[in-house]
Amino acid sequence: MMTVIDETPVIGSFDLETVGLDIADPENRILSISLYGDLYPEGIVIMYPDEADTIASFVRKAQRHDALLGWNSEEFDVPMLLARLQIHGVDPNQVPLPIILDCMRVHEFILRKGETSYTLDHVARKHLKEGKLPFDFNRMMEFFETRKEELARYNLHDAMLVWRLNKQFGYWSTFDAIVKRAGLDDYNTRRFAGRSQKEDGGFAWWRPLMGLVTQFCKRENRPVPQWPSDREKDLRRAMVVERPGGFVETPTPGHHKNVIEFDFKSLYPTMIQTFNLGWDTDDPYGDIKPNFGRYTSSRRSTIAAILDELIEERSAVKREYEERKAAGATTEELAALKGRIEALKIFHNSFYGQMYAPFSPMYHYNSAKNITTHGQECVKLMLERMREMGFNVIAGDTDSTYVRTPPENFNKESALAL
Questions:
Q1: How far is CA 163 from CA 50, 102, 124, in A?
Q2: 390 in helix, strand or coil?
Q3: Distance between CA atoms of 23 and 82, rounded to whole angstroms?
């Protein structure tokens, strides 16, 4: 089987159709599995009378890919496949499969796309102007036995929608860029792609973040922060008597028009960089005096130094993207660059959560409190200044302020003039 570190990974999307949705039901079965993508640009549907043959054929074809993309695959397709393997007396751990990335989770928890619903039908209709095909799920077996072409068409259409959404949003290119920048090995890449015990918003962010920290510390000959013992984790939890969060201004009720949002750029990362926050710059005699504790300026904190590098790197990749776009680069080249840009942005905004996490080697309670409390002060100051300037402030949240303006000032020029 090919490996994910290949320069041009082979990617596909897949979808399962089953008799029912109960994964634990031994009477359930997989009826068909579709594949779409690099190896199957027109798509294929695997459908045999014997479920074992369908699964075996899919596994053989799946192993030719570096990664497969699904939608809600972590909750349904993958558990269903593993359960059916066991039903047929096969140990799932002995069946090598490529990395399987749940694009629904990427859409929600990595790209942070806000949707009223994360079903494939809703997201596809909204962004592709085309949803799932109509189908009567109560008649699955009837279609499997007498109307196979209609079942195949429905099955393949779902895989095609996932593939098209990936092309539009760059799910794989963003995930791949995160993994490569963090230097994750195959084990940690697979664990990051799937669910983990220590999750943040559906993904175990500590894996790539610790990858960045480990890379930096080894390069700079600094000690790599170590995982805490169970006793130390318990002590950390016991000492956390408060956990200040972002400031929220009570919103003004009503339906508002002509509203402009003013947003701090990278507020929390900026706090880390400004006050040089981190476990390795905490110094009772330090010359930097934020709200909690003191920090030395004699050396850059590990996280602040990494953030410095990420900002420079992202700016360079943005320039490269524009240059390659102007030079007529392929869609694939541009997608890879866009994935790197998005990955670097995500990295930039992810360190704060680790400072509050008792299990994390990057834990530092005072630093986390400094980030949020100074962030609160910034938002409050912005609200105060807006009111002094005569604006009607209707809400404020974490790093943003929402103000209502007269109709004649509801434009980009007036907003930038502020």
A1: 28, 12, 11
A2: coil
A3: 9
